[in-house]
């Protein structure tokens, strides 16, 4: 999977040229001195020393070293549960040991059925088997390596045949549209295009509407020739390119929902698991043409025409297809996955953890997704390890993680978080995620609003590989909103390994990377040759992503008081109220949000008082006991915005601030407990959920008050 930080990148791209000459560009070319003089969470002296350490450490990751790691880690298709993926584990462990890190492996046995064969035929009007392989291309020797079959992870198994129906994106509203046209997919094969929702939602909706199989194709309009030259001539998807990917909705091993897949854990049988049941197969637009070109019938709804060179029709038929999927679930559906950890013990607060992680598995060679993230973690680890050898051991413990089986539904990180939840709840300060960290030149970032200020500050100090100034300056220049001080950052809905930390436990997270034009997502062509020609030819963006990681880790690990920004957090929360207010007011419940608005206002005021108390306390000396107590209270703030029973719709999702929309899987939903009730037209519940959320904000505010009182009462 991939974080969705860069989905608006294309809009930004067209602005880059216009904004090159903007006067703003001069601003951060050399870091402003006022930034250097006050480093949040540090004493004046400590902050100055930390600046020097971060500046030095952020320069340690090297493009040459990143290129070497990338070559090794993308040398084979390394799907979770395969021997090739065990080799990436061993490589990462050997590298981290050579750096002098302590290492650990956590292995879990999870339900991970591998496809053994996948075949697709058009059976009418003429018969033809459609080849699903992604063929070798000239000048790219790695396209001859072994491939994982073109199938969606957790596809149903068996054979199905029927008339073809084109369902647009396969969204809930697309099926409603088909209903209004009197067209059903029942007993038929649905063909949907990728985009606008998580593919697991497409599979769920096709199955709910009675389709016997689902084929999901990559329309050239979204990442093919309509967007640029196709591979190998350009970076976009060619007519044979396939987007694999999981269709599991939810996170973690479906055999052990909510608890870790350790050796003796009870496990559901496949029949009891929440799994897709119909065969679901991703296909290229070459193959989609074979099915869609001769489709007839139905009045094509507005907006349903895609980028293939013929008029689209909905069907059903006269084209018919047959699809067959087999996997190994009957004999060896359960497989071992392995998370790796490299650890730098903290000198003063070893129980407090700052974690940086990336998934290590892929659907193919995965040079972008996610060798680039793994390389960022490795190079950040090397940078921090060298700082430690030079005498700068961090105060808190730093953990460098690589997760297995993310591509199947965040399995490795989820099982780990469930396994180690008590320690994480007590001591985790932040989780920094790297997914597709370097696939282009445009910086994007997201995360909890409490950590955004730290990331911006670090990005101001790290030079951008373009040579145009800092990463922050380039980020601001390429963002659509240059008139504001801060480029927009995305919210942590879901879709990558931060979900366990954020959605399940309420640990603040942040995520960043460099994106660009790419049509090789989850394809065999996401490989070293593609990366070397298009994604990051110099590997400088890999090194820069790692440099930001190293500086972020040191900042959060060394701060006397962890620099969460709860003023920015509260202000961000305030913005989610007006849409709720408008909807409730239109149903005669105006004013229902008043309590929440006031509670968030109290949080903002307390956060501002705390910040003043923090800054004046740091001008004096703080005892270790005081520091521990303040930081413990601060860690309680976002934890207070989770609830043990989770969302009504999904108990694993305990965080009440953001979640991926249940009806879309990709789109982010703020205040989900409230907004889901409103969407269900359950106004009474919406009001109860508002009250519940209000109380939790007040609990969060009390944690801030406690932090402040620890500083002011001596
Ligand atoms: Zn990924």
Written account of the structure:
56% of the residues are buried. The chain is built from 24 helices and 18 strands. Strands 1-11-13-12-14-16-15 form a seven-stranded mixed beta sheet, sandwiched between helices. The protein has 714 residues and is an alpha/beta fold. α4 (63-73) packs across α11, α4 packs across α18 (540-558) and α23 packs antiparallel against α24 (683-712). β6 (189-193), α7 (199-208) and β7 (213-217) form a beta-alpha-beta unit. Bound molecules: zinc ion. Zinc ion binds next to α11.
Q: Which outline best applies?
A: globular
What is the arithmetic mean of pLDDT?
Answer: 93
Strand percentage, roughly? Answer: 15-25%
Describe the main β-sheet briefly.
7 strands, mixed
Ligands present: zinc ion
- Discrete helix count: 24
Secondary structural class: alpha/beta
Given as residue ranges, the uncertain stretches (5+ residues, pLDDT < 50) are: 1-36
For the biggest β-sheet, the strand order reads 1-11-13-12-14-16-15
What Rg do the Cα atoms give? 25 Å
In quaternary terms, these chains amount to single chain
Distance between the termini: 49 Å
Helix content: 25-40%
State the total count of DSSP E strands. Answer: 18
Q: Secondary-structure blueprint of this entry?
A:
Blueprint: H1 9-19, H2 33-37, H3 44-58, H4 63-73, H5 83-98, E1 102-111, E2 115-124, E3 128-130, E4 152-153, E5 158-166, H6 172-180, E6 189-193, H7 199-208, E7 213-217, H8 220-223, E8 245-246, E9 280-283, H9 285-292, E10 320-327, H10 329-332, E11 334-344, E12 349-359, H11 367-389, E13 396-403, H12 411-419, H13 421-427, E14 428-433, E15 442-447, H14 452-461, H15 471-478, H16 498-504, E16 509-515, H17 528-535, H18 540-558, H19 566-574, H20 577-585, H21 594-618, H22 624-639, E17 658-660, E18 668-670, H23 672-679, H24 683-712
Parallel strand pairs: 4-8, 5-6, 6-7, 7-9, 12-13, 12-14, 14-16
Antiparallel strand pairs: 1-11, 2-3, 2-10, 5-10, 11-13, 15-16, 17-18
Helix pairs in contact: 3-18, 4-11, 4-18, 11-18, 12-16, 14-18, 19-21, 21-24, 22-24, 23-24
């Amino acid at each position: 999977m991939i974080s969705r930080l860069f989905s608006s990148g294309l809009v930004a791209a067209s602005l880059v040229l216009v904004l090159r000459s903007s006067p703003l560009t001069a601003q951060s070319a050399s870091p402003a001195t006022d930034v250097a003089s006050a480093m949040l969470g540090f004493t004046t002296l400590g902050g100055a020393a930390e600046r020097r350490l971060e500046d030095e450490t952020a320069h340690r990751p090297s493009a040459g070293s990143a290129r070497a790691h990338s070559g090794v880690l993308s040398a084979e298709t390394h799907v979770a549960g395969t021997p090739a993926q065990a080799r990436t584990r061993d490589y990462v462990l050997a590298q981290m040991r050579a750096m002098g890190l302590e290492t650990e492996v956590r292995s879990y046995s999870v339900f991970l059925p591998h496809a053994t064969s996948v075949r697709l035929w058009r059976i009418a009007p003429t018969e033809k088997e459609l080849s699903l392989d992604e063929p070798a291309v000239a000048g790219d020797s790695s396209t001859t390596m072994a491939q994982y079959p073109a199938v969606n992870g957790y596809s149903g198994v068996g054979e199905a045949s029927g008339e073809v129906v084109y369902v647009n994106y396969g969204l809930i509203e697309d099926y409603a549209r088909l209903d209004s046209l009197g067209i059903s997919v029942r007993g038929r094969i649905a063909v949907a295009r990728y985009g606008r929702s998580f593919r697991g939602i497409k599979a769920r909706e096709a199955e709910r509407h009675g389709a016997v199989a689902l084929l999901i194709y990559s329309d050239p309009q979204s990442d093919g020739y309509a967007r640029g030259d196709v591979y190998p001539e350009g970076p976009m998807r060619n007519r044979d390119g396939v987007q694999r990917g999981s269709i599991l909705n939810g996170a973690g091993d479906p055999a052990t929902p909510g608890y870790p897949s350790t050796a003796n854990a009870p496990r559901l049988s496949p029949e009891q698991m929440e799994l897709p049941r119909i065969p679901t197969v991703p296909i290229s637009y070459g193959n989609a043409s074979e099915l869609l070109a001769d489709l007839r019938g139905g009045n094509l709804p507005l907006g349903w025409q895609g980028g293939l060179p013929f008029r689209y029709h909905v069907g059903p038929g006269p084209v018919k297809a047959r699809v067959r999927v087999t996997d190994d679930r009957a004999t060896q559906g359960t497989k071992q996955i392995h998370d790796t950890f490299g650890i730098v013990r903290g000198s003063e607060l070893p129980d407090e953890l700052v974690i940086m992680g990336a998934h290590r598995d892929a659907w193919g060679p995965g040079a972008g997704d996610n060798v680039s993230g793994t390389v960022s973690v490795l190079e950040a680890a090397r940078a921090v390890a060298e700082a430690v050898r030079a005498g700068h051991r961090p105060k808190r413990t730093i953990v460098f993680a690589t997760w297995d089986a993310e591509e199947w539904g965040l399995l490795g990180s989820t099982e780990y978080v469930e396994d180690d939840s008590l320690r994480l709840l007590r001591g985790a300060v932040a989780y920094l995620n790297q997914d597709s960290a370097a696939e282009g030149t445009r910086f994007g970032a997201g995360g909890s609003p409490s950590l955004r200020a730290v990331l911006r500050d670090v990005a101001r100090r790290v030079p951008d590989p373009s040579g145009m100034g800092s990463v922050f300056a380039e980020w601001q220049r390429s963002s659509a909103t240059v008139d504001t001080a801060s480029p927009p950052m995305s919210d942590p809905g879901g879709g990558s390994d931060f979900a366990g930390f954020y959605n399940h436990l309420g640990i603040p997270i942040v995520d960043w990377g460099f994106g660009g034009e790419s049509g090789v997502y989850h394809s065999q062509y996401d490989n070293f040759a593609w990366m070397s020609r298009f994604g990051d030819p110099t590997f400088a963006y890999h090194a820069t992503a790692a440099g930001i990681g190293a500086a972020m880790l040191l900042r959060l690990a060394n701060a006397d008081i962890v620099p969460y920004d709860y003023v920015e957090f509260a202000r961000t929360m305030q913005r989610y109220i007006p849409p709720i207010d408008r909807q409730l007011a239109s149903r005669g419940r105006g004013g229902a949000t008043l309590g929440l608005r006031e509670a968030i206002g109290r949080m903002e005021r307390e956060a501002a008082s705390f910040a003043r108390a923090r800054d004046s306390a740091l001008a004096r000396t703080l005892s270790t006991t005081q520091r521990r107590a303040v930081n413990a209270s601060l860690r309680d703030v976002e934890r207070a915005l989770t609830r043990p029973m989770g969302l009504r719709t999904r108990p694993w999702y305990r965080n009440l601030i953001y979640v991926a929309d249940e009806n879309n899987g990709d789109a982010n939903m703020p205040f989900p407990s409230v907004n889901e009730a409103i969407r269900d037209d359950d106004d009474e519940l919406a009001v109860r959920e508002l009250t519940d959320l209000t109380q939790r904000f007040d609990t969060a505010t009390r944690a801030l008050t406690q932090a402040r009182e620890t500083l002011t009462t001596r």
